[in-house]
Structure prediction request, 197 residues.
Amino acid sequence: MENFGFPRHVLIVGILFVSALIALRISNAQERTYKIGDRGPAGGWIFYDKGDSTGGWRYLEAAPDDQGTAIWGCLNVNEITGFETEVGTGKINTERIIKQCNEEDTAAQLAVRYKGGGVTDWYLPSVGELRLMRDNLAKNDGKGFKPESYWSSSFAFINLVHTVVFKKEEKKDKGVFSNTMATKDSRKVRVRAVRSF
Prediction:
């Protein structure tokens, strides 16, 4: 090892010191706490805090903007299996949609192709996660949600998928948010990607 004019022990201590600083910085970044409505590490909005990191994640972050509209897809698949509705299941639902339904330009494909914040772990939320976005973001100050239906990754039955409608009353400007369903081929339903970390 070249010592650049320094005694070997000074170089070793310097390397250890720099390594410790790097480890501390990484540790602090991982331990940062977020509140609902904060900007997340990928530039989206924090809408859920599980309280611990079991399962490899603690927070859910919604993309800062919609990814547009798309059909849900799986139009030629009669039996779609293994779709959950609970919080924390959107990622596995999205993986199942893509695996079972080899189609382009669907809601799930639109969500996973989103690269906001330079990360590639975005997915289509479960209906439980979508309801949390409604309750914790849209009802408070909007966060860019349109007064329309949003797709979940939660298949309901036959040709129907769970959606959540975000719209406001005209007179009172209070949020009216309902849980609905849409047919898999509906082209007017919006997509908002989420990620867990």
Summary: The chain has four helices and eight strands. The mean pLDDT is 84. Strands lie at 45-49, 59-62, 68-69, 149-157, 160-168, 175-183, 190-191, 194-196. The two ends are 40 Å apart (CA to CA).
